[in-house]
User: Fold LysR family transcriptional regulator from Enterobacter intestinihominis.
Amino acid sequence: MENDVASLIYSFAQLEAFTAVAEHGSLMKAASKLGKDRTTLRDLIDFLEDGLGYALFLREGRSLRLTPEGEQLQRQAHLLMRQVKAFEAFARSVPDSATQDIALVYDPFTPRAFLQALIATLAAKKIRLSLTSASRDEAEAMLANGQADLGICQARNRSVGNEMEWRALGAIEMDFYAATTLFAEVASPVALLDLSLVPQVIMHAASDEPVARRLQISGHTLFTNELEMLRGLLEKGCGWGFLPTHLQAARWQNVKRLHTEVGSQGIGQTMVTIWKPGSDKRGLINETLSLLPSLWKDSAL
Assistant:
């Protein structure tokens, strides 16, 4: 049969009194430091010693000196007090630093200036934003299983059913870009036949078939959804791109806008915001949705 061991009952006030007296060597100095009555500190230490069953201090006139047991306990009490103080500081800061989280999944064509503006706006509201670039199918899957709260995607011109809600966000203008040497021997304007014979860089995953198919002209494609990799492929003449003008690809090294027979007037892609109805974060989602139109407009797209 196991022996019953009585639990030691002590309070934060007793540990505080003990560590203060141990540090200052007197009740008077410790009481002054803590802003408490000397008698109160003495009672607290007496109660702690009674609970422990051994003395913590040797009394020498008005001074107090730690006993060997007291010296051993002081080290542990000091560590515990530091943890308590850290907890107290954290607990007091919670109302001022409380944050909310929202996860956004976005199409690779989403303007970076718009995303940066959204990050800054939500940060000012103490809302932490997680961001993931993904295909439309991946975005819908993340929304469905709760990995994301909002999605910004290219419109598919089809119903999203009862599983998702959507709202139009805006449009992005598109144009053709390639390395300066890629079509150097082709007459301008470049014909669609010429484009179809040269590899095309598509800034979407190969699995994102509906979007990729809509953007694809060439029979040979290279896929990437990372902006710097796209830039590298175009700069090295690996292929041409049908890309958003906000990427400013014409500013890249040895890359120019292609003058094609289809022109670029009126060519664009509609972007929509999608989300799963009934989310526990619907208040936060609605607040974020209300911010998006003005941020989109102000991002100089």
Observations:
- DSSP finds ten helices and eleven strands in the chain.
- Residues 129 and 286 are 15 Å apart (CA to CA).
